[in-house]
# Entry
Amino acid sequence: MPTIEAVEAIKAYWGSNITIQETKDQIDTIWTSPDNVKDVLEFFKVRLERPFSFLYDLTAIDERSRRNRQGQPPSDFTVVYHLLSFERNEAVRVKVPLIGEPLSLPSITTLWPSANWYEREVWDMFGIVFDDHPHLRRILMPPTWTGHPLRKDHPARATEMPPFHLSDDRHEKEEEALQFRPEEWGMKPSRPSSDFMFLNLGPAHTGTHGVLRLVLQLDGEEIVDVVPDIGFHHRAAEKMGERQTWHTYIPYTDRIDYLGGVLNEFPYLLAVERCAGIEVPPRAQMIRVMLAELFRIASHLVWYGTFAQDVGQLSPVFYMFTDRERIFRLIEAFCGGRMHPGWFRIGGVAQDLPPGWEQGVQDFLNYFPSRLKEYDAIVMANPIFQARTKGIGAYTREEAIEWGVTGPGLRATGMDWDFRKKRPYSGYEHFEFDIPITHEGDCYARAVVRVEEMRQSLRIIEQCVHRMPAGPYKADHPLTTPPVKAATMQDIETLITHFLGVSWG
# Structure
């Protein structure tokens, strides 16, 4: 794998303090020490001519039980920084080994504000401290939780833990932990002229569209500040993955974003297939794309209807859920399931499309564009809707990048960044579609982007109908598909492969 110019530059600058690691996923990866990591990250963000300005991810790995350490230094834990350069269209991964106690690194919140929550999550899940973090406290687990769940020695099942008993003393501690104290969050409970009101919105509230708690700081009817508490919906997807096989983990991905369906299966399987060197057949690639775009429209319809409902327009949500049901009928006909079909497989999909599938999809393509025009008239052109969304929640492109905004939220600031175009996968490079962008960066601009994305999804789906290639719907690879049963009766190697593939998962 050729090393990108930026990594060569930092290797030349830092010399022996940088180690380059070969990787299967073709992302340039370097190792550096805890003492140097902040300076190295600053080099990538500030000193390069076309910088890596986007902190794409920050996570950690418990390495204590790792057997294969080829190409990497010794470590008990590894902290991983994933950086992205829009100008270069390149990514780089920076890893830092940690051995023994104390497990600590310097905080990079002064480099990227978006690192705040990432570092809190790493401390919450792994117990790694980030020095000089402005507010290092749990973010996903309850404040009363004992231990750090993504450590390998933390129990993964309830049966591995003592029976749960909510004593009076524990109940009192849990209630105490939920009390909101403004001073702990850097807020002042009052000012010389008036006292602030603090209002709990959620975690069980229809307006949050999920299990989310928002503590609002109010001055009369004006929201002065807000503290989000996001941990109520944490389901330990990574921890559950520790006891699953590569195949049996697929259904769990559907539930990461429960409206996304196969959209969540896609990145997981792309990563597994890249690491395993599995080539997905062209027909399977296009089937995946078509299903992903159908789910994109279905997800956007939920957003569209509930967004209009939240600003006071009640009718659209009923029409849009009716249209979403049409999509679910197609998905159920193809996959056997609706919201969470678990239908993609390593190397392809679970089964081929049923006979006559083209007509069902074409009927939807003929039906839906006129519905979008109606929604333009009753929602997007509505003066009350515009008054309540234009100029609200606005941010610039620079702010979006600093705070780690992606997707429609980033494209609403004029950034034409879409992975399907910039880093095409599953054959997206063969499709004709546009990247919708706006420039205002407010609620209305983000709505315009999402509405136009549905139209672009229709373009992609129509091309799938007319260009669907013949061929297998799954790769003929021993890691994905058991050998043909008939061959196992006469070929001992095939019999062994079949036995191992089934027994090992």
